[in-house]
Write a structure and sequence with these properties.
By secondary structure, this protein is of the alpha/beta class. It is built from 15 helices and twelve strands. It has a six-stranded parallel beta sheet with strand order 2-1-3-4-5-11, sandwiched between helices. It has a six-stranded mixed beta sheet with strand order 7-6-8-9-10-12, with helices on both faces.
């Protein structure tokens, strides 16, 4: 069994320089991604690194470059919620792929309560990461202020809904989808099917995505009564509870637009329990087009597609541009991706 070399046995910058026939400073610039080295010399250094098995000392490298090659991904939800909802897996996959392509580590931080906020604040202020990607914020969340005080470049997932008057926060870059337009298209589709008693199961209304989707519902159905709107929380169980309340309040409803696919799948379960045929009695449309949910419901779910993985990639790309010195000013202050209705059997 081969033993791992000790720190004293590991190749040094000086050894790499001697093998490549260049100065130690040239090796340092190549290893740390610095400019000003001719390509032929850089190739010699890279060959010497491979031959000797040189591994950079990341602590020393950070002192030179002031970079940590790590990005914090902060999700303002509990572990239970994050690991039960495929939305987060898709967004994390997009972020991870982009960071991996640039040899940058992902550090996942979850927040559920005050203790978590304090812990995350200490970590972000401790100089461990080069920036933060933050999503699933709630309107009263202290995270934006915590991150601002840490002085980290930040990109948000979803349109921020700042409650304070800090213009710097309000102008923070973000990536989102056209929540309002997508919701409007979903409801207009139901209207086009001849449905007249259309209800809405909202998401958690302390999040801007849920508010925007409710606004889109109201754009298409300005005269919808309050008994046709029930607040959910973007979960399967929340969709079940809201669907039961809607049926109790309006037994003759003939369509439901749910704020996400998980809520829609909960609504479908209750409709089956109540003996309602989908889509004959009640048509159902969701939002997200998460294939693990939308293609597995019975019947398969008509839904509004947003490219969740691409949103994650764009967030990471914007932050990496800032880290690499291009500045977030080189990117749009926000990116809003289009949505599209995907028609399946439920509506």
């Amino acid at each position: 069994m081969t033993e791992e070399p000790s720190a004293a046995q590991r190749p040094t910058l000086e050894a790499v320089a001697a093998r490549a026939g260049v100065s130690r400073a040239t090796v340092s610039r190549v290893v740390n991604g610095g400019p000003g080295v001719r390509e032929e010399l850089a190739d010699k250094v890279r060959h010497a690194v491979d031959e000797l098995g040189y591994v950079p000392n990341h602590a020393a490298r950070s002192l030179v470059t002031r970079r940590h090659d790590a990005i914090a991904v902060v999700i303002a939800e509990s572990e239970t919620r994050v690991f039960a909802d495929p939305f987060f897996a898709l967004q994390l996959r997009g972020i991870s792929r982009e960071l991996t392509a640039h040899d940058v580590q992902l550090v996942l931080l979850l927040t559920e309560g005050r203790d978590d906020h304090e812990r995350v604040g200490r970590y972000l202020s401790g100089g461990h990461v080069d920036g933060a990607l933050v999503f699933s914020l709630h309107l009263d969340d202290p995270l934006p202020g915590i991150i601002r005080r840490a002085g980290l470049p930040t990109v948000f997932g979803g349109r921020p809904g700042w409650q304070d008057a800090d213009a710097g926060e309000r102008s923070a870059p973000y990536v989102d989808c056209d929540n309002r337009g997508g919701a409007r298209e979903a409801v207009r589709h139901l209207v086009g099917l001849g449905r007249r008693r259309i209800a809405h199961i909202t998401g958690a209304l302390d999040q801007t995505s849920a508010v925007d989707r409710l606004d889109g519902f109201r754009d298409a159905l300005a005269d919808a009564g309050p008994h046709l709107i029930e607040e959910g929380d973007f979960t399967f169980a929340g969709g079940e509870r809201a669907m039961r309340r809607l049926l109790d309040a309006e037994p003759e409803l003939d369509a439901v637009f749910a704020a996400n696919d998980l809520s829609a799948s909960g609504a479908l379960r209750v409709l089956r329990e109540r003996g309602r045929s989908v889509p004959d009695d009640v048509a159902v449309v969701g939002f997200d087009d998460m294939l693990l949910v939308a293609e597995q419901t019975e019947p398969p779910l008509t839904t509004v597609r947003q490219d969740i993985e691409e949103m994650g990639r764009l967030m990471a790309r914007m932050l990496l541009r800032d880290r690499n010195g291009e500045g977030l000013a080189a990117c749009p202050s926000s990116v809003v991706l289009p949505t599209a209705l995907v028609r399946r059997a439920s509506a």
